[in-house]
Design a protein that fits this description.
The structure is a homohexamer. Chain A is an alpha/beta fold and about 325 residues long. Chain A has 2 domains: about 5-230, UDP-N-acetylmuramoyl-L-alanine:D-glutamate ligase (3-Layer(aba) Sandwich); about 230-330, UDP-N-acetylmuramoyl-L-alanine:D-glutamate ligase. In chain A, about 35% of the residues lie in helices and about 25% in strands. The first copy, chain A, contains 10 helices and 15 strands. The first copy, chain A, has helices at about 35-45, 60-70, 120-125, 140-155, 180-185, 195-205, 210-220, 270-285, 285-300, 315-320, and strands at about 5, 10-15, 25-35, 50-55, 55, 80, 90, 100-105, 130-135, 160-165, 190-195, 225-235, 240-250, 255, 260. In chain A, the strands form 3 sheets. In chain A, strands 1, 4, 9, 10, 11, 12, 13, 14 and 15 form a 9-stranded mixed beta sheet that branches. In chain A, helix 2 links the parallel strand 5 and strand 6. In chain A, helix 1 (about 35-45) crosses helix 8 and helix 8 runs antiparallel to helix 9. The longest helix of chain A has 16 residues, at about 140-155. Chains in contact: A-B, A-C, A-E, A-F, B-C, B-D, B-E, C-D, C-F, D-E, D-F, E-F. Strand 3 (about 25-35) of chain B pairs antiparallel with strand 3 of chain D.
Chain lengths: ~325, ~325, ~325, ~325, ~325, ~325
């Protein structure tokens, strides 16, 4: 059983039920989610041994968040309970021509103030095959940026493969640093990078003529980079999308099947399901199979409410194989 | 901030949750809605100063109805609380090839017995830019027909633009008058008319060869008429529709973009959202922009549960501009 | 009013709400369903006089099951309350590319142990036009297989038309008999057979080159057979299917319209709704009209949550006639 | 199995969930209830053969009401489906020092316009042991008063025992008759009367010095009267009541145990559960046992949400015997 | 109609349904509440003209909060929409021997950063009979303390009676000031003070031997003080309390009836309901009647879920008069 | 951190919401519970390191059960996933004079067929302070009885204190053995026994004159027995109980405070919460403190819905100390 470590904030996710708008809501559905923990949960559901690093406020909401991670099969023993508040995001599901909407309320969270004090890196990284981070963490605070760098250095020292989802978010980066002052040294320590053209432009503060140029630059500039992975989504409206993904190696590239998604249930976390699928795939399958597995994982996430993909390996493999097709399994 | 006045009945709306049929329901979702108040709510959400005229029974259900209008930003200070019952409509949402279904239980409502006694028209109409009515009100009772006529006369005397949604409903008109005995004099006092061919045939009790003829007749017969507006809906099934709209002026006409609607959430009130959009558009935009704004408002209503469009000006403008397209707004 | 008798197990159906997976659920929606009782319920909703034969455990869950059948208009006076447990099926609704999933927990149910003791066949079959069974019952236990045979013999003795839905389920047949040891003699006593190629292969333990060959064999081998009926479903995914059906007589065949189903609400029970429609159609309409009626009934079931079709004769006839098309009925 | 017939209106009951007030509600729980049908349901739950006479509007809400009665085991084959609306009552559950509140919206219901046309009295009353009515029916309309009188005459002609719950309601009697113009001739045809001092005062328009005097008068004036039954409730607040009942025969009287009720769940329908218990008791037990059985039925109703007592004979008998006492039954 | 102005923060209130703990919740009930706005809502429900002063973040949650205040009948036109987050409080309802629990997440709210800029005091205070504040506001931030002082000075300048609920909360006062540095000058400007012994000790940083001494000190030290009001609660457990209140004037004192509260639904906001009742009572009734009215209002709040008392004047007066007592009102 | 191991079946618990009866339910609340796992969950909530031994069916329901245990902080790595069904219990909450009711559907569960194959006892029992079992497990099947005996022997061999809750259930013991053929040798290996008079009578098939005699016999007959613990419950009705407990040592005895419980939320699992409290208490406190701690834990369970006590050490200690008393904790 492969061991994987992930690092990142987990927020309380609050959403009006069904297609209600915030203005109409009298109840909010309560979940917990965060990009990297979503990756961890998908991997744990497939039987991996996954440890998530984060910090929670030491009160009932933090305990509930940890409980939810545990339910998802994630090892929570390295989680820190410290003073501070719980980061929150309010999510309103879109439908048809109406967009989904997120109101972030994550400033001053316990995690943003977490410097990794007390983490026993030797124990945590012992026997680990992959360490996963995302561009959200270094965008939260200087402490979080530092913690990410430390983690990536520790992982590289131990020869652990690092995967990173650049995931540039313009409304973060409020603590006085610009992405290009922080991200490049993290990218240098990353072996599998999930990123599109815009992520590179923002993280490096440079313009590129085409994605082809971007790709070339990336492999030149980041010698440890093994795979560059990009998803292509055409968002027709909130209920209908087209989705495919490509994996670029130094020598060979592979593009997945393209999927028509209608009747979308919950798009949030589909990139994380994809990242989880990619990590699983690169650990167990050929690169070509890995990108198909990852894309199928990402596709299936759209059918599951909440941040997290709860789909078995078998379900994903059947979608890759074009089987099932909506028949009732008895 | 423009001031607008609307007049009409507000009913208790009761619907089984999800896709349940009445026969299956153990709970009913409780909303309040009525064509003209739905228009008022959309306008209030966009920051207009809107006063709605109606009557409610003077008990908890009437108070709750008024509370809901207030929540929607509507000025309820001119509402009358009088004896009588609350009009009700039971709505079962259709899906796929199964139609939505409405059971009206609105006879003998407080509003049907309301003659407008106690309304201070001078105060109510002071500074008002637009007065809106619909063909539902004069169809309810002789008192309601009289009240509509008085309101339109008062508005016209003060030079207020009157918009009217003819909205012919064959199952109303139970009080002994036929539409053509009542509607023509109301139409004479109306500057913006939302109506299709069938509305004209029924309200005037005349046949017309084509909508082109109807349009010509309307501008000839109603000298105050500035704009005739018509929506064109192709209803493929309860979940899939095609929608566009046209605005006809005395000189120029404009037809909106056509929208493919799939995954319809709640179609009820989409005509009212359109009417609200039209009123807003004609007060703030060019006629060409107005019909696009109105159509986008009508389209977005299909994604919001309940009778009322809760979408911001910005959301509507983005749809008009073809932006957004279902991306998550963060 | 035609009298119809049906025989079969009714299970407790438990499903997570909305699009939740079992792993996420904190509540389960509670229904009761079973293939033949679903047929009975559809027929009762259309005003038929339908009596269902089954057995329930004699405790509150069995009483609740009987109460639900009664609510559906089914005559429950011949139901037996005996020791044993309630059969259960756990249903997770699929969506998009994710399949629906059923976990059966029906072993050792009261019905599986029911030998029909105490049934007064003379009273039950008096004046009956049609007796309906399915291939699920003989697959449950030797007692159930025997009971089915007795019922079919009693019906044939009285000249009652027998309809049977072969409905082969590979995960049943656990009691030591193979289908071909049991089914043929039941099929010999059946006048209207709903079955596809796979059903014939499994029930007869023979291979056929084509459905055309299968059909020929069936009419040759089963001299009482009047109609062979088959549905054709293309399952694009859990939300989108294409559906049509054919009725084969000894002389003439009829194929229904083909329906595009998008936005599927609940596919479970659509075959039963179809079977109910077929029984109704063959009792009241021409064969050509019957297959259209049956198909429209099957289509509409996809829009109604739960096992049972709650749609009026008028709604089905409107779909056959191509009317309605999703307009709101007021 | 004893056969019982009941007559009366069944209304749609709509209540905010939990302890919400109407002003707060966003959903309403949907039940169906009416005094006499509540009696019928309790009796049917105990295995009696009960037929309820009423009229419903011939649309989905009326069908759903009939379905609910059937679920409760009531024979609905004599119910008439006629034009008109469904009577409604809106119920807000009180708690602590806050009273429960009912808003009636029952005017012009289908039942109020029902004259019993088409009822086959010979078939309906064949083999019947008891006919039950309440003072609500004659208070609704002249037609309903006439229908009640006809029913009581038919029952008396056939020697059927008649039980009546006077149940005076001051907010009914709107059709131009006063109770004393209508009730006395119905009381003359009644053998078991449930009534308190206030009921007698209002129905006879006379004052009595004491209940003892009232009782004496009743047995003198109504020669057919066998039992006069009265419940005594001390309502400390919405959650806490004290309850007992007395049965007066011409010779002997019996008073039940007194119960302290705390933690009241739903008081509505407790009088009907009591009446059902009384009818059951007088058919199967001694008068002394009957009043204890009736009181225990009435007590247990306070613990069941909705209008109807769903408690088995065994549960009631255990309460009478002082067993159980809140232990978990496994 | 009396005009009243209130000032204070309104928070999003999120609570697990029923008796669930945070650790168990999958949904949170969504309300909005804040001490002073709760007072405002109670007064508005009784027909007062109430204007609430506060600040909300200018996004959908802030708009929803304002909508909820409007629904409650509060004039929201003076509310400021500014940058910042929405204050939140997470409330878990206790039961039996388990205490209710609140997790505050209100730091850095929009209101805490509000300095009253843009408030048109002349317009706001025109014709006002009473201005109400609480000790929570000056505890939030220096800006809030300043704003409270300005408001109280403006009110005193105009001869408006000021009521203040000292409501000392030890977990606030985080901005560097101690209560006794801020509260005394606010108390000097207050005519009606709701406070217990602990409030005085903390706000003045002094010890008193008895409440009698405290009272004497208060009337001596605060010459504008007209009434000192104190509630006495014995909290037996989360479901059972005993409650009474006393009003002390310079000459006369009055103590209310004592109420036994069992079956408590929601205790939060009962002090605010009491304060609202006191303000209403002192404006319309004698001091003796006022304290009874206030106490009854406070008592009834315990039966209503949410922060706010939705009870009519009539309901409160009936409780004062000892009528009703849990009978169903029809 | 103390390490504890527990052994026993975990069932799916399904209950109608609120006070509904099974006959009324349209949804069932879904929990997982089982006596020994409930003990484990309480201990894990207090920070103990608890490992639960059980077997689940290897499908989604079994995975969900394991997920729920993990959420509760229980180490699930020793759980076996094997063929079989999930045991179920249907629970209807009583109220007032109406008893709670449980329908068991646990026959032929995966656990009943579990012989402990594959358990690595050395690893499981390494460093363990306490092993807990209950009399339910040996009552399920011969395999389960054997497994319990093996476990107790392994624990005794390693000097681990064994606690056992005799918990005699008459409706189990269906596999051909009587309790007295199985229980005595398990009791011999138990150091802390929770049992009342009836448990001893049934498990030993002997009569005792008094509990005092029983106690004497127990200490004589079971030389390893350190503590005998008994709870005393007076069940006034489903909502009101009186509760206390006694701990008997060989030398000294201690009786806890007696608690009046009103407003009971969910009594199920209160014995398990008590057992958890006892184990915690005997590991950390004096015997006198332990029985108070255990009783307070049992009392608080009545206020929490579901099988499991989610209350912190601090909450329990406050109840022991008589603090808190229903005040809101902020």
């Amino acid at each position: 059983m492969k061991k994987i470590v992930t690092l990142g904030e987990v927020m309380l996710r609050l959403s009006p039920p069904g297609n209600q708008r915030f203005f109409q809501a009298q109840d909010l559905e309560m979940e917990f989610g965060g990009s990297e923990a979503n990756v961890a949960a998908a991997l744990a559901y497939w039987g991996m041994d996954v440890c998530h690093l984060t910090a929670f406020p030491d009160h009932e909401l933090g305990w509930a968040a940890a409980g939810k991670l545990r339910k998802n099969g994630i090892d929570t023993r390295a989680i820190s309970f410290i003073p501070g508040r719980m980061g929150i995001y309010f999510l309103e599901q879109g439908a048809m021509q109406r967009s989904s909407q997120i109101i972030y309320d994550r400033a001053d969270s316990a995690f943003a103030d977490f410097d990794g004090e007390g983490l026993d890196w030797d124990a945590i990284l012992d026997g680990v095959s992959c360490f996963h981070w995302s561009g959200i963490t270094p965008a939260l605070s200087q402490k979080c940026a530092n913690l990410t760098l430390v983690a990536l250095q520790k992982a590289n020292e131990r020869g652990i493969r690092v995967s990173g989802d650049l995931n540039y978010r313009s409304n973060l980066w409020q603590y006085g640093k610009a992405p290009h002052q922080v991200m490049p040294q993290l990218m240098e320590l990353t072996h599998v990078m999930i990123a599109g053209g815009r992520d590179f432009r923002q993280c490096l503060n440079e313009e590129f003529k085409s994605f082809s140029d971007t790709k070339k630059m990336a492999f030149d500039r980041f010698p440890k980079l093994e795979y560059l992975v990009k998803t292509d989504r055409i968002s027709h409206n909130s209920s209908v999308n087209t989705l495919s993904a490509s994996l670029y190696g130094r020598k060979k590239s592979h593009t997945s099947k393209s999927y028509e998604l209608t009747h979308i249930v919950d798009r949030v976390g589909s990139g994380d399901a994809f990242a989880g699928g990619l990590i699983y795939g690169l650990l167990h399958l050929s690169p070509k199979e890995a990108i198909e597995f990852a894309m199928a994982a990402g596709v299936l996430k759209h059918s599951v409410p909440g941040d997290i993909l709860y789909c078995s390996l078998q379900e994903i493999q059947e979608l890759v194989a074009g089987e099932g097709n909506g028949k009732i399994k008895r």
